[in-house]
Amino acid sequence: MFEAHFQTFEEPEGGVALTARLSAFREELARRKLTGFVIPRADQQQNEYVAPSEERLAWLTGFTGSAGMAAVLTREAAVFVDGRYTLQAGKQVDRKAWHVEPLADPPPEHWLTKHLARGDRLGFDPWLHTSAAAERLAAACAKAGAELIAVESNPVDAIWHDRPGPPLGPVTIQGPQFSGEIEAEKLKRIRLEINKLGVDALVLSDSHGVAWTFNIRGADVSHTPLPLSWALVPKEGRPTVFIDHRKLSNSSRDHLERSADVEEPDKLAPKLTELARRGASIALDSATAADALSRLIKGAGGKAVAGSDPVSLLKAVKNITEIEGTRTAHHRDAVALTRFLAWVDREAPSGALTEIDAVEALETFRRRTGALKDVSFPTISGTGPNGAIVHYRVTRKSNRRIAPGDLLLIDSGAQYQDGTTDVTRTIAIGEPTVEMRDRFTRVLRGHMAIARAIFPDGTTGAQLDSLARQFLWQAGLDFEHGTGHGVGSYLSVHEGPARISKLGTTPLKRGMILSNEPGYYKADAYGIRIENLELVIGADIRGSEKPVNAFETLTFAPIDRRLIDVKMLDAAELKWLNDYHARVAKIVRPQLDDNATKLWLDEATAELK
Q: What pTM was estimated for this model as a whole?
């Protein structure tokens, strides 16, 4: 009845079986006169999701998390992961061959400084590290009396004999009915930013920026409609898009050629060299531009100017067409979510459902809309103790039965051509405990504090972040992730530069879409998260002395009333919740065609007193 087309649940290969690869890799390093090498989990553009051909870290070590790095020295080897993945890495890598170390505190450079010897030659692939990352590696080497060597070709590729070919997802056009702005207008705005920077050209090293600028989408990486590509935008004259021609149909090539020259990716380096030889100053995005690009520009006599990619901010502020599309996508998604939540309530109390059943059912309800292009990330479906693992991904091995007395945390999203969604609901299976209701209500109050926030223009996400935590803090509790991230328009579900977190320094602007997702996680017991997407809008405040903003909630799905301790809510919070549920019912009920789900929705959105 239900199945997942866009997600798998297989346990990746790993552990001792891969140790032979490490030996072969050390032999390759010796052949190249290197005593060590650093392998990041990255592609040439620092994408969150990478193509199978770029999964070097997973191939060599067995670790399949979305963030990490490895360092291989002659006698020692380490895999560096963040807190989300410590347990996973411990299970996936051969602990006799690899140390598992923290990715952030202390950073990998600390380990390298301790383990490198004087005279060592540490190799790195400059196409897979930013310049800032390369500088940190160079400093670690200098401290140990070692040398950092930029390699011409990656030694992992030399021994990865069955490495997949590069991705060739067909490029599609994101027409003005979805994009709301033609390429020529976007390029005009980008050129204004190039002039402000005082440079001769801008490299778009982030494929999301290329996709947005030229109104194209693709299928090169999982869950994000991304066409891997680069672009070079001069302050005058035609830009150039560098993309594998095999991805282009006649219509997508014609579309691109209306506003840009189109070249193969291997023409980027010669084109930059030619510009640099004329003494050009070229802007690079410090977050996504490969160190190889600035080396190339400097080596040819040009000036590499690293900074924030101006396109990321332009892209983050959605226009009216994108906002309307996102609203439509969320209304469509709300119907699929309601059908799913009603189904869980009917089926879960029997104890027959598993975490995988929940993932397959939710994807199926979304596919039945007829508009689903992909899920926007692999669904997090965690019950009981698995719900306490923030970035849990269910496999056939970890798949847990959903039992009465458990909480089910389900965090999921959809890619529709008119908008990207991301929503988390926590569902009580049977009777929740007093503690569960207390923790859930504290998380809900934090969620509502963000949703109801009024803030002056120029406010950053860091300034709002504590609003989401205040009620947990009052009980000596907290959560270890940010409160929210930016979301793209049929692009990445995790979009910069704005976010609601302690590190969110970008001012929130009208038209930005951000998630609002406080949580609470009790290790080995349960997890709670409530997530809606929010649009930054103007607020009309009488007597206001400066422009003021607020949030419009875009996501519509019932919040589990059984988990709310109404006595903990004040009158304004109760009103917000009842108003929200009334809107859910108004949007979703007319689109339902079966009475059982209508009756369930009536109960799930009934007024709380």
A: 0.95
